[in-house]
Amino acid sequence: MSLTVVLDHTALAALYRADPFLTGLYIEASRGTGRVIIPSLSVLAAERQVTGAGRHAASLRFAENVPFTAGHAVDAMDWRGVDWPVAHAAAIAWHAVKAGEPVTVLSLEPELYAGTGITPLNPT
């Protein structure tokens, strides 16, 4: 069984800075033994947080970039206090849960997910 992770904007910034754990997950994805999901709104937020991080994330060959859909928006509508990049990552996780596909959201700021029902792991 391979691990599927969703990297939010904080994790994408850390990956850009060559965090060893996140780099290792990406290497596993390149080998086909893991899966890295990148929310498109997290790409934009990472770029705004650290110049170059979003562009780097958008160029990752072995990661799956997921666009923000109407379904994600519907899930996020109830999370009024949650910022848009966090809402996108959380909605992706909820869609996976509904489909019976286990995923782990990785965030260096898991407290941002309060109220979404998603509990991300801090990889640091």
Protein architecture, described:
This protein is α/β, with parallel strands linked by helices and 124 residues long. The chain has six helices and four strands; from the N terminus they run E-H-H-E-H-H-E-H-H-E. The chain has helices at residues 9-16, 20-31, 40-49, 53-58, 70-76, 84-98; strands spanning 3-7, 34-39, 63-66, 104-106. It has a four-stranded parallel β-sheet. Helix 1 (9-16) crosses helix 3 (40-49). The longest helix is centred in the last third of the chain and has 15 residues, at 84-98. It is globular.
Structural class: alpha/beta
Which residues form runs of ≥5 with pLDDT under 50? none
Number of helices: 6
Count of strand segments: 4
Task: Give the CA-CA distance, first to last residue.
Answer: 23 Å
Percentage of residues in strands: 5-15%
CA radius of gyration is 13 Å
String of helices and strands: EHHEHHEHHE
Helix content: 40-55%
The largest sheet is:
4 strands, parallel
Q: Strand order of the main beta sheet, please?
A: 3-2-1-4
Outline type? globular
> What's the overall average pLDDT, rounded?
95
